[in-house]
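Lab notebook, bench 4. We co-purified these components, and the gel suggests they stay together. Before we commit to crystallization screens, I want a quick structural picture of the whole thing.
Request: model the full complex, all chains together.
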Amino acid sequence: MRLAARPVGDVKPEDWQHCSETVEDPGPGQFAGRTLAISLDPAMRGWLDDRPSYLPPVGIGDVMRAGTIIEVTASNHPGFQPGDHVTGVFGVQEHVVSDGKGALKVDTSLAPASTYLGALGMPGMTAYFGLLDVGALKDGETVVVSGAAGAVGTIAGQIAKARGCRVVGIAGGPEKCAMLTGELGFDAAIDYRAEDVRKALREHAPDGIDVYFDNVGGDILDAALTRLAMHARVVICGAISQYNNTTPPAGPSNYLSLLVRRARMEGFVVFDYAQRYAQAAQEISELIGAGRIKVKEHVVKGSVDDFPETLQMLFRGENVGKLVLELV
Amino acid sequence: MRLAARPVGDVKPEDWQHCSETVEDPGPGQFAGRTLAISLDPAMRGWLDDRPSYLPPVGIGDVMRAGTIIEVTASNHPGFQPGDHVTGVFGVQEHVVSDGKGALKVDTSLAPASTYLGALGMPGMTAYFGLLDVGALKDGETVVVSGAAGAVGTIAGQIAKARGCRVVGIAGGPEKCAMLTGELGFDAAIDYRAEDVRKALREHAPDGIDVYFDNVGGDILDAALTRLAMHARVVICGAISQYNNTTPPAGPSNYLSLLVRRARMEGFVVFDYAQRYAQAAQEISELIGAGRIKVKEHVVKGSVDDFPETLQMLFRGENVGKLVLELV
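Here is the predicted assembly.
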């Protein structure tokens, strides 16, 4: 799936172009594979805009960038054998040829392939380092997570619960909220579509928010800023509510509570923590094994043609947990 | 000078009430004094609003809160003798009775009385801890200061220069800018009234901003956010451009550059550093003595009746350096 045009606002079907091309054989030092599953991430929207960011934008005519898991079909690379399952940023395509750069062999007998795109992939890493390193979470603190029913939010909230924190999730709709407080064990959930978030935070975080893990931006960020505890940390992980805006994002007008509460707001990009992914994956695996993290995945089965429509599910809030397109 | 009404927007003369009252004698453990000079600070505007902040609001009918320097005229307090010069939050009034709480004896043979309200008072402390502790300034970094010709900005910029940093000041008008780059030795100055701040920052901070010390908020904060270096620190000291707003302050719509640049934005309140004021004052004194910090003061001579009008000078940007009302 190649990018045909720079989208303005919502990504439209005509912004994409599906090309059929001859599958190349792997050259020296390369391997080839077929894609098993494709990760869909809110960050993808930012990659489509031609402006400076932490990665260069996807070029017009380029295969869309995406994390995927593939099965190796042929290899001239000593590190990868046919049958191996490998994750990497291989893009939205059925067949892949790679020199192995950024590729990681994974064991799908320990966890399903899709989990290596979610709890044990970038979303899991993002939750882990955002909460523990950037947020400097301490045991027993009050944590509020927005986008709480998403890929990152579900993991972040459960890591915080595992550390003995009081965890409040913000999500859209009663089903997501029930899942958070039921299956995932959050202490409270706020349905931002039905409730006054500011008032609900006053109720559910009566002593203030120590760590606010923000995936959404906009009004919800502004509401959270009114409820910070002293020395709070606001972790800026994303701003999905703003990504399809054609005007500049709404800035958090309550940012001066950073001053009043001696608080900080800090952004991060998970790639900076690559050296420590293995450590994080190990810890998350153990929490999954112990039943303290429940993996939520939203698997759409289809072909690469379904990528554009599946991506839009993220921005409509239709997914619960990690959204994955499994190629069948 | 007592607060007569909660101001809406700009503070108006009728928001104040000047009362003449009998001067009381000091009781047991108290001293009395006459006010020599009154500090005028942007933060005063926030103290007039009835909303939660780092200090309770000034009550209707209360003497306006202000840092001042007084001369002791009579004392039943063992720590203070007639003739002593003492700083404290004694308020906008000609005569003071105090139990000594928060009072600090100062030596006006070492520095003029007004300097204990400026470079060696709250503004100096604010510059010092904001830059070095919150901003975690490292030698040789690029520092941008807004409100650079004000009480805090002049000191912050010169402390950074003394640490070998590249220092860019943002101020209003050619005279202030000439003073910054001339007398105070800043590397560059940007006149926000005449220049495109974003473009000017690109020129004067070509490698990005490591520490942005913000006194003003609004559009200038937003411009600075577009020019952050990796791992930048944005120190939220104040937001004078927003204090007289009757609507919520404009939030920084470019806050997502915190994510792209792995940067943080952090607020602080100088009172938290009270235990270390003496250390900071010592270091600033030495820099003044060595000629590396030039003290800029804007002294208005008058009576407490001149307080309302003098306060407005801050919000019109009419002061250069520390604004002080000296009672004559």
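The longest strand of chain B covers residues 31-39. Worth comparing against the SEC data before the next meeting. DSSP finds nine helices and 15 strands in chain B.
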